[in-house]
Amino acid sequence: MKKYLFPLLTLLLLASCGGNDDPPPAPGGASLVFPEENSECTTGTSVNENLSQVTFEWSASTNTDSYTLSAVNLDTNVPQTISTAATSASLSIAKGTPFSWSVTSRNSKSEQVASSETWLFYNAGTQTSYAPFPAQLVSPISGSTVQKDIANEVLLRWSGADVDNDIDAFQIFFSDQNPPQTEAGSTSASVMELAVSVTSNTVYYWRVITTDSQGNTSDSGVFEFKVF
Asked: What residue stretch is flagged as signal peptide (predicted)?
């Protein structure tokens, strides 16, 4: 009996002293604070006639030891990024320009990351009124393949916003050519979806032009999707 006792004790010790097989905790998503969503940011410190330094702020997220701030110039789609362990960071960004911004949370012990919401804002310039933010195309997701409905249609959905809160209309351009030049329809400021006719095994392209009451416009850029 004794000859079995030592191996059994050894196994018990190994089991009790062994490493924890639980995966490291994934980081949580940060909550954005400033610049506020769909706002005009007027607190930037002027760097020169073209740039001002804006301090971005967010709330701490769980299981996080670093954050990556990304601010995207919506006129050029060029991002600026900076990493920090703090819950704020400053970037020098173009004046009088629309931006989107978001924060990615990271944990050095985990391969997983978490993304915050994405907010839009205008960095203040010399203008007294602003063009609408470029419409954010929601669905179909660009590059996706979708199923048409029983009426051989697909529903296009987007979101729109304006600092001046004076969006007048959305124009939707849709075709199987890139860029789409055919207007599929227009909607009022309160309607942000449109059903379009489609054919199977075809790639389609779409974009939304937003117009405000002063005639200012913005372009969403082109999304594409394929129909089964």
From this structure: 1-21
Going from the C-alpha of 168 to that of each of 35, 102, 117, 187, 215, the distances in angstroms are: 25, 28, 26, 9, 9
CA distance 54 to 29: 22
- Whose structure tokens read 């362990």? 85
Q: How many CB atoms lie within 10 A of CB 2?
A: 5
**Taking the complete model, does pTM exceed 0.70, yes or no?**
yes
Burial of 166 (0-12, 13-18, 19+ CB in 10 A): middle
pLDDT tens string, the chain, 228 residues long: the values are 445 444 544 545 545 554 556 788 999 999 999 999 999 999 999 999 999 999 999 999 999 999 999 999 999 999 999 999 999 999 999 999 999 999 999 999 999 999 999 999 999 998 878 999 999 999 999 999 999 999 999 999 999 999 999 999 999 999 999 999 999 999 999 999 999 999 999 999 999 999 999 999 999 999 999 999
Backbone angles phi, psi at 175, to 5 degrees: -170, 180
> Structural domains in the chain?
31-123 (2.60.40.10), 136-227 (2.60.40.10)
148-155 long-range contacts, CB within 8 A, separation 24+: 148/198, 148/200, 148/227, 148/228, 151/195, 152/197, 152/198, 152/199, 153/195, 153/196, 153/197, 153/198, 154/195, 154/196, 154/198, 154/204, 154/225, 154/227, 155/193, 155/194, 155/195
